[in-house]
Amino acid sequence: MTDINGDDASKYRLIGDRVLGYRFAAPHDAELYLGDVLKITDSVKGLTFFAKVTDLLHDCNFSDPKWDTRPHTEHFYGIGEDVFILVEAMPLGYVGGDGAFRKPRTLPAKFSRVERPESRDFAFLAQVMGEIEVGVMKTGQGVMKDVRVALHAQVMRQHMGVFATTGMGKSNFMKVFCASCMQAREFGLLIVDPHGEYVAGGRSSSGEATMGLLHYQAGRDGLEVFSTRPESFRRKYHLNQLYLDYDDFRAPDLLLLYEHSPPQREVVEMLESTPGSEVIDFFQSTDFATFDAETYTGRHPRIANDLKNFSPSTLSVMQRRITGMMNRNRDFFRRQGSSIPDILKALHENKVVLIDIPGISEQSELFVLSIITRRIMRSHQGEEAGGEGEPKQVLITIEEAQRVLGSGSGSTRTFREAAMEGRKFGVGLCVVTQQPKNIDARVLAQLNTFVVMGLSDRGDRDTIASSAKQDLSRLDTEIQTLERGEAVISTIGIPFPVSTRIHLFEEYIADLNKKPAATPIDDGLEKTF
Fold first, then answer.
1. What are the backbone angles phi and psi of residue 178, rounded to the nearest 5°?
2. CB–CB of 200/404 below 8 Å?
3. Which among 32, 25, 92, 90 is positioned nearest to 60, based on CA atoms?
4. How many Å is the Cα radius of gyration of the chain?
5. Which of 82, 459, 484, 490 lies at a CB distance of 3.0 to 4.6 Å from 450, suitable for a disulfide?
6. Which of 436, 268, 280, 257 is nearest to 360 (CA)?
7. What is the DSSP string of 417-446?
């Protein structure tokens, strides 16, 4: 028995017998990793196949099943050609003579040669990548720096999910995504930041200092910030002040802030289409201890008539809740004057719109996001009804999305409407969560782009695998072992799930800032007399 030569490529030979699952033998000392992408050259058909390693196990040609536990095993058996690594791999597809990539509807010839690909072997991927760059292709423990991974802008209206446990690099991904959107200017992106980490940087979950979107100076024209921070901070960074007014509010927004009894929910539904300023004025100016719709002489007889059958105690509770809502949000909620027209304008100019509200309560964060989401939906539905061509495309980010898109929740109509119908009007959702299993399955079914950044919980991984449009079930082990800053991305337009090393935001914007910007019109002219 002759010891195997590790450089003998003939040992890497396909021995599988299924079109949807490959197996091949590799030398016992071969350095292979889960997630490695390998090339299979079929000289019989003239095709080049690609496959991803999904499992590795030791195997041998010995008939004795316990050969490796016998005394003096190495003396009698040795580790040579009959001992090898059995590799299980998932087919990704193949490239024919025309250079086009196709799904794996055939299988390579028996004993086809298996080898590691080079970057040039993935030239076909450059033709199918989109405009929103997020990282480079990962294969096993390494990366292919020449193979960039970029999402397609036109599929963002079909919703995206970003799934990551704490510490896996979710915030870094979102900032890289924002920077690419600022550069590409292909659609409007709305992101609400209650932690204040996106605008000028902050601290990562591991305590490291991070940069913010304002540090991407070359893309500043693609960013609009509306903030509740002090005036000195806003002036320093040239930020807009965030304001919402009473008419931006609608009664269903209260459902996000409080638990409601059936009668209280009926009040909300009764007032759903009533302008917020009228609802607020009615409840502020009415004494419900003596309220009688028949003798009411105030400014809102229609509201009084609509609520005539409700008990004074129910109306008093609603009055206290509206007062509490106003007090909680008094820093940015006022009678007249709203930032929403400017927010919509910036979104329709394909900018990243950052709502910077650090230190705000969770209820207030959802209050702001609900109001803006509803206004975006109504604006786009109006464009559709008006028939004035293709509506502008907007992507709305919902952090910790399980709060408003969980199964059984009836208080999030605005977000569910956007998930179920938004794509018809050019409105997509970016659903960000650590707990995909807690998202309503009907909402997950609407997502066409999945960015999976490491999930330790099997229930979460099973949920993702059952909802993704591409098969992620074979990648379960790889997803479980993803390291920080790594992701498996499944999206329309890219033919197979791509393992990705996400750019480090600070390095990415440093590269973007080096790219030449547009030259000012007065560049080179004398500026003095």
1. -60, -45
2. no
3. 25
4. 29
5. 490
6. 257
7. HHHHHGGGGTEEEEEEES-GGGB-HHHHTT
Strand order in the sheet with 486-490: 142-151, 132-139, 498-502, 486-490, 449-452, 160-163, 427-433, 394-398, 188-193, 352-356, 223-227, 240-241
- CB count within 10 Å of CB 65 equals 8
Asked whether 49 and 91 are in contact (CB, 8 A), the reply is yes
The Cα–Cα gap between 343 and 29 comes to: 59
Number of H helices, E strands in the chain: 16, 23
Element (H, E) at 210: strand 209-210
- At 217, list the tokens: 């100076």
Q: Do 346 and 340 contact (CB within 8 A), yes or no?
A: no
Structure tokens given for 164: 């990551």
Indicate the average pLDDT of the chain.
87
Q: How far apart are the first and last CA of the chain?
A: 91
Report the alpha-carbon angle 389-394-400, nearest 5: 155
Q: What is the pLDDT of residues 299-358, one digit of tens each?
A: 999 999 999 999 999 999 999 999 999 999 999 999 999 999 999 999 999 999 999 999
Q: Using CA atoms, how far apart are residues 512 and 498, in angstroms rounded to an integer?
A: 23
Gap between the Cα atoms of 119 and 176, Å rounded: 23
What DSSP line would sit under 218-281, residue for residue?
Answer: GGGGGEEEEE-S-HHHHHHHTPEEP-EEGGG--GGGGGGTS---HHHHHHHHHTTTS-HHHHHH
What global pTM score does this model have?
0.87
Instruction: Produce one character per residue of 304-333: b if its CB has 16 or more CB atoms within 10 Å, e if not.
Output: bebbeebeeebbbbbbebbeebbeebeebb
Rounded to whole angstroms, the Cα distance separating 428 from 156 reads 6
Dihedral angle, C-alpha 364, 437, 432, 331, nearest 10 °: 0
* Residue 392 to residue 307: CA distance in whole angstroms: 39
Backbone φ and ψ of 390, nearest 5°? -70, 130
Q: Yes or no: say if 475 and 497 are a contact pair by the CB < 8 Å rule.
A: yes
What letter represents residue 423's amino acid?
R
The closest alpha carbon to 380, from 347, 429, 425, 430, belongs to: 425
- Write down the pLDDT at residue 231: 94
